[in-house]
Design goal:
Blueprint lengths: L2 H26 L11 E4 L5 E7 L12 H9 L1 E6 L4 H8 L4 E6 L7 H13 L5 E7 L12 E6 L5 E5 L7 E3 H9 L4 E5 L4 H44 L7 H27 L14 H25 L3 H20 L25 H21 L6 H21 L9 H16 L6 H25 L9 H4 L3 H20 L3 H19 L5 H7 L1 H20 L5 H32 L5 H18 L9 H7 L8
Length: about 650
């Protein structure tokens, strides 16, 4: 495929996916579209407030016949799901003693008749203009890692529809601290989005609760399934990466296709955990169960893998990777810009109840985004080294697009993933530097890391100093001691979480460490035929080196242990092993056509000799290599065609 044609297809695919995401974002959020904008917005005031906490309240218990008062409040007031634990009422009472706080418990089998009667009595006896908030308390213990979302109904606050706050940035989702801050001060701003009839409101919110519960119930086994598949792919890939093993062409005929299919499945699964929420309304019920979510994620994984295989078969196999990299990047970016309709919760996202404050993109999604974008960039430079637009892309196009992606990930009002400002910036600068084939000196790496760290600390300090709701509010106490105290505080917070993740599974940590050390050896020592391999794949080598730096920095700066670096590693390994598969297929074709045995090193040296001569003197001489080799070298941008 010609570069111009392929570029046009990529641009068309980007526009198509963007339009597709905008159109279906309403499906992911039902009738509450993020683009509709808040209809009203109010901050806290000094008017009287009554808070009723009901233990055991769920949306399905509210009906016109059984709970007429709560049902009427849902019609005339505003509703949301509450992400919190059992401690927020005590925090509210300590912050605002004047708030009237009542604690009620649902009867047997969810009977709310007594609760409804008491709420009706409070309404009648309260002064005009009283703000009444009815919020459920979870039935699980306060120290549970993921508590279910709880119903919240508010009236008298001048808002109607789906509530959201200036901290959660999610339609129909509030945090317990939002209620505390809203009633105790004027910091938190609550806004309401238009909502349909009461029955549809309750069904929408109940549906979101069911999604969160289903994801959490199946998260562990889905994670282990993906990890097992990734380890299998890694094991098969490492066999092919030993170039000095003179593999029989018969073995590569089935091993290479198997590896390619496994790589495509591994790359298709992460983005499928976002796309599984794009379904037509008649299939909404599938997302309410673990089996339905599993089926949807598998459907999208298989669908994307098949499309990638068709694209590779009809054009060039490297385009299969390009397709999945583009889809992953576009879906994550579009979801973030549309206020996260596909990432409220998921297998590779934060649970809706994990973060009291808005966590934005999240560690896992940022690893997927940068892994797909950087690897795609390196393979494009590799695939089109002599294209007219390639020099412009290497000089400024890559930097401009990377800066935009970094901003979407890190700006507090959009993404708030501060780790990206360090490891992401370092990776982009190293890749851009190597694209220009400049020498990578230790002092340059140190200066880049220091500059990125200062940028991240500066943005974090500005967020803490000027934002009423900073992304990392627990760092505010460290800020009083200056930048050094802030740096040490961040390090202590990260190391505590990260170490707990690392020791969770020592065998997996050991496998990850061995793999990373092997990748470092291939890049630095260049054993065997890898000197010729890297000389022929400069574009990949640039993002490969940048990726290794990113993985090391992730291990040091992020609180995800090896999980986040392992996600990034999957994209780095995919691009690297894909070219390794090309080398094995190319060698098999040459041996089959010439009837002579040839090693990978000999094949790559012949290609390098021809490329050197052709670059200096024009067309290659007739007798520099066997005829069949000359013919294949001219088409070696994708050795499988």
């Amino acid at each position: 495929m010609k570069p111009r044609l392929f570029t046009g297809l990529c641009i068309g695919l980007l526009l198509l996916l963007g339009a597709f995401g905008v159109q279906l974002s309403g499906c992911a959020t039902d009738t509450a579209s993020p683009n509709s904008g808040p209809s009203q917005a109010l901050s806290g005031s000094q008017t009287p407030a009554v808070v009723v906490c009901v233990r055991g309240l769920v949306w399905s218990d509210i009906s016109k016949n059984n709970t007429p008062t709560l049902y009427d409040l849902s019609i005339n007031g505003s509703v949301a799901n509450l992400a919190s634990n059992s401690a927020w009422p005590e925090n509210l009472k300590a912050a605002q003693p004047d708030v009237a706080l009542y604690r009620l418990t649902a009867g047997a089998d969810g009977d709310l008749s007594a609760v409804d009667t008491e709420v009706n009595r409070l309404l009648k006896n309260s002064p005009l203009g009283t703000r009444l908030i009815v919020a459920a308390l979870p039935v699980t213990s306060a120290d549970a890692p993921h508590l279910p979302l709880a119903p919240l109904i508010a009236t008298g606050i001048g808002l109607e529809g789906y509530l959201q706050s200036s901290t959660t940035h999610r339609i129909g989702l509030l945090a317990g601290t939002d209620i505390v801050d809203y009633l105790a001060s004027s910091k938190v701003i609550l806004s309401a989005h238009p909502a349909p009839s009461t029955a549809e409101r309750l069904a929408f919110l109940q549906h979101n609760v069911a999604i969160c519960n289903a994801v959490e119930a199946s998260r562990e086994y889905m994670g282990w399934a993906f990890l097992t598949l990734f380890m299998l792919t890694l094991a098969v890939s490492l066999v092919l990466s030993f170039f000095e093993i003179d593999m029989n062409p018969r073995s590569t005929r089935w091993l290479v296709p198997l590896t390619r299919v496994l790589i495509l499945v591994v790359l298709a699964y992460p983005v499928s955990t976002f796309l599984m929420f794009i379904i037509p309304p008649p299939l909404y019920a599938l997302t309410d169960s673990t089996g339905g979510l599993t089926a949807l994620s598998l459907f999208w994984t298989i669908m994307l893998t098949v499309i990638a295989l068709i694209i590779g078969k009809r054009t060039l196999w490297s385009h299969s990777l390009f397709f999945l990299f583009i889809v992953t990047s576009v879906v994550i970016l579009a979801d973030q810009l549309l206020a996260g309709p596909l990432s409220l919760t998921g297998y590779l996202n934060y649970h809706a109840n994990e973060g009291i404050r808005y966590y934005g993109l999240g560690n896992e999604a940022s690893a997927l985004l940068f892994g797909s974008w950087l690897t795609f960039s390196g393979l494009v430079v590799n695939r089109f080294p002599n294209a007219r637009l390639t020099p412009h892309f290497k000089r400024w196009g890559f930097l401009a697009a990377s800066a935009l992606i970094t901003a979407i990930c890190a700006v507090p009002q959009i993404g708030a993933s501060f780790g990206v400002l360090t490891w992401g910036v370092v990776g982009v600068v190293i890749a851009w530097w190597l694209f220009a084939e400049r020498p990578l000196r230790p002092r340059f790496i140190i200066a880049t890391i220091c500059g990125a760290a200062l940028l991240a600390i500066g943005v974090l300090m500005a967020d803490l100093a000027f934002s009423p709701f900073p992304h990392m509010p627990n760092m505010d106490s460290y800020l009083q001691g200056g930048p050094l105290a802030l740096l040490l505080g961040v390090f202590n917070e990260i190391s505590a979480y990260s170490w707990a993740t690392i020791v969770y599974s020592p065998p997996l940590t050991a496998i990850f460490d061995i793999t990373v050390l092997w990748l470092f050896a291939l890049a630095l020592v260049k054993p065997g035929s890898y000197k010729e391999f890297w000389a022929r794949n400069r574009g990949l080598r640039a993002v490969y080196t940048a990726g290794l730096a990113i993985i090391v920095l992730m291990c040091c700066l992020e609180d995800s242990g090896i999980f986040m670096p392992a996600l990034y590693l999957s994209y780095l390994m995919a691009g690297f092993i894909w070219l390794v598969c090309d080398m094995h297929t190319w060698r098999s074709r040459v041996m089959q056509a010439s009837g002579k045995h040839i090693t990978l090193r000999e094949l790559m040296r012949l290609a390098l000799d021809q490329e050197t001569y052709r670059g200096r003197f024009g067309d290659a001489p007739v007798n520099t290599a066997p005829t069949v080799t000359t013919k294949v070298v001219e088409e070696d941008e994708d050795h499988t065609r």
